[in-house]
Write a structure and sequence with these properties.
It is a single chain. This protein is of the alpha/beta class and 449 residues long. It is 43% helix and 13% strand. It has 18 helices and 14 strands. It has a six-stranded parallel sheet with strand order 3-2-1-4-5-6, with helices on both faces. Strands 11-10-9-12-13-14 form a six-stranded parallel sheet. It has a two-stranded parallel ribbon with strand order 7-8. α5 links the parallel β4 and β5. α1 crosses α3, α5 runs parallel beside α6 and α9 crosses α12. The longest helix is centred in the middle third of the chain and has 32 residues. The radius of gyration is 24 Å and the shape is elongated.
C-alpha cells in the first residue's frame, strides 16, 4: 500500500518506518526542511533503540521517502496519517492548530477517495473538526469528493516504540465507514498474523480510549507515589507493599513502582487535556486533578529530602545527578523530573554535575542556557565524573548502568557518602552497611530514610 505520514516527530517517524519495513511505500512529510534533509542523509532526530537502522535501510531501498511537499506525498497515497504535535495550551487543552492546518491542506489537494487517519493524540470530537476542515476546502474548490476520517491512536512506549508497533497488543480503529475500516485492516494485516489484534469501535470511542489508557497508567503511578509517602511517615518499606499488591492479578506489577514523578510527552499532557475535557462538560474531574497534583508534588520529593538532610540553603553544596531523560531508553526531556530537581537545587544555591547515557545533547539544546553559562550546571562525560567531590548523589532516571555501580569507587570519589535514590534502585540496608547515608522513596522500613 502507499501511505503518507504528515509529521516526522516521534509518532510519525516510527509509524512511517514500521509500515515501510512491512513492504509498504511510505512518504513522510514535514515542513522542516532541515529535518527532512537530515533524514535523507540518515541522521535521526530522536533517540529510539532500533529505529535508526530501520530508517536507513528502508530509505535506501526506496520504501521510505522524505519530503516537504504534501501534494507530492498525496499523489500516490491512499491513506494519509496526521501525526503532528498537539501541545498543551495555557488551560491544559490540546492545541489542534497543527492538526487542522494539515487537514485544510489535504482538502486543498485531495484528488480522489482517501482515508485520513488521526494518529496524533487528540480530544474527543477532533475527527469531526478534521472532516469539517477538509470539506470546507473542497467546497471552496467546488469539488465533490468522498473521503473518510478514522481515529487510530498510537500506544508506543518511548524506548520500546519499534517493538510496540511491530508487535502491538492492540490496534484500535475508530471508524464510521466499512470501506475505511477494510482499508485500515489491509494496512495492519501483517501486524496481526498470529491473531487478530484489531479492535473496531466508533471514532469518538477511539479518541477517548487513548486518553483513558494514559490517564489510568498515570493514576497507578500517582497512587503508588502517595502510598510511598505514607510508608516514609510510618516506617514501612514500600517495596514490600508493592510486591504484596502486585501479586494480586487484579492489580498487577506494571506501573506501581514509586519514584520521583512521571514525565514525557504523553502522561502529563494527556491528563491535563482530559481534565480540560471534563471541565468543558461541566464535570469535576477530582481524581484526574489529584493525579496531576500528586505528580507535581512528587517531582519535589527528592528536593524535600535533600533540604531535610542539608538544610534549606544549599550554598556551596555540589550534587551529582544521574539521569536527565524522563525515563530510560530515550533522550526526551519533556516534563522530566530532572529539570524540576535541578532548578530547585540551583535556586537554593547549589551546583549540579549531571550525567545521562543518551540525553546529554538534548540537555545542551533544551535546558536554560544560563544554567551552563553561570557554571551552576555541568554536564559530565562519564557517570563517575559526576560524583567527584560531590556532597550527595541524586539518582533521577533508572538507566541500566546505574543499577549496579561500583559503590567502593563512588565512596572514594564523593566528598560525602550520601545517596538520594529517586527510583529505589538500591537496597537501603546494603548501602547503609557500605557506609552510605541512604534516602529512597518510601523505604523507611528498610533502614533507609
Amino acid at each position: 500500500m502507499k501511505v503518507a505520514i504528515v509529521g516526522t516527530g516521534y509518532v510519525g517517524l516510527v509509524t512511517g518506518t514500521c509500515f515501510a519495513e512491512m513492504g509498504n511505500t511510505v512518504y513522510c512529510v514535514d515542513s522542516d526542511k532541515q529535518k527532512i534533509a537530515s533524514l535523507c542523509a540518515g541522521k535521526i532526530p530522536i533517540y529510539e533503540p532500533g529505529l535508526d537502522a530501520l530508517v536507513i535501510s528502508n530509505h535506501a531501498n526506496g520504501r521510505l521517502k522524505f519530503t516537504t511537499s504534501l501534494p507530492e506525498a498525496m499523489a500516490d497515497a491512499e491513506v494519509y496519517f496526521i501525526a503532528v504535535g498537539t501541545p498543551p495550551g495555557a488551560a491544559g487543552a490540546a492545541d489542534l492548530s497543527f492538526v487542522l492546518r494539515v487537514a485544510a491542506e489535504i482538502g486543498r489537494h485531495l484528488a480522489g477517495y482517501a482515508v485520513i487517519v488521526d494518529k496524533s493524540t487528540v480530544p474527543v470530537g477532533t475527527a469531526d473538526q478534521v472532516r469539517g476542515a477538509i470539506q470546507q476546502e473542497l467546497d471552496q474548490r467546488g469539488v465533490d469528493l468522498d473521503f473518510d476520517v478514522v481515529s487510530n491512536p498510537e500506544f508506543l512506549k518511548e524506548g520500546a516504540a519499534v517493538d510496540d508497533f511491530m508487535k502491538p497488543d492492540r490496534i484500535i480503529i475508530g471508524s464510521a465507514s466499512n470501506r475505511a475500516t477494510e482499508i485500515m485492516r489491509r494496512l495492519y494485516a501483517d501486524f496481526c498474523r498470529s491473531h487478530d489484534r484489531i479492535l473496531e469501535m466508533g471514532i469518538r470511542d477511539a479518541e477517548m480510549t487513548k486518553y483513558a489508557a494514559n490517564a489510568m497508567l498515570a493514576t497507578k503511578i500517582s497512587f503508588m507515589n502517595e502510598i510511598a509517602g505514607l510508608c516514609d511517615s510510618m516506617g514501612v518499606d514500600v517495596e514490600m507493599v508493592r510486591r504484596g499488591i502486585g501479586s494480586d492479578n487484579r492489580i498487577g506489577y506494571s506501573f506501581i513502582y514509586p519514584g520521583c514523578g512521571y514525565g514525557g510527552s504523553c502522561f502529563p499532557k494527556d491528563v491535563q487535556a482530559l481534565i480540560h475535557m471534563a471541565q468543558q462538560q461541566q464535570l469535576q474531574p477530582q481524581l484526574l486533578q489529584a493525579v496531576h497534583q500528586r505528580n507535581a508534588l512528587q517531582k519535589m520529593v527528592l528536593v524535600d529530602k535533600i533540604r531535610t538532610h542539608f538544610g534549606d540553603r544549599l550554598d556551596g553544596k555540589v550534587f551529582g545527578l544521574w539521569g536527565l531523560a524522563f525515563k530510560p531508553g530515550t533522550d526526551d526531556l519533556r516534563e522530566a523530573p530532572s529539570q524540576v530537581v535541578i532548578e530547585a537545587l540551583l535556586a537554593a544555591g547549589a551546583r549540579v554535575k549531571a550525567y545521562d547515557p543518551v540525553a546529554m545533547d538534548a540537555a545542551r539544546r533544551e535546558l536554560p542556557a544560563d544554567w551552563f553559562t553561570s557554571g551552576a550546571l555541568e554536564l559530565c562525560a562519564h557517570q563517575y565524573d559526576a560524583l567527584k567531590e560531590v556532597d550527595a548523589l541524586v539518582l533521577v532516571t533508572e538507566w541500566k548502568p546505574f543499577r549496579h555501580p561500583d559503590f567502593g569507587a563512588m565512596k572514594r570519589l564523593m566528598a560525602k557518602p550520601v545517596i538520594f535514590d529517586g527510583r529505589n534502585q538500591y537496597d537501603p540496608a546494603q548501602r547503609v552497611a557500605d557506609g552510605f547515608t541512604y534516602y529512597g522513596i518510601g523505604r523507611a522500613g528498610k533502614k533507609g530514610k
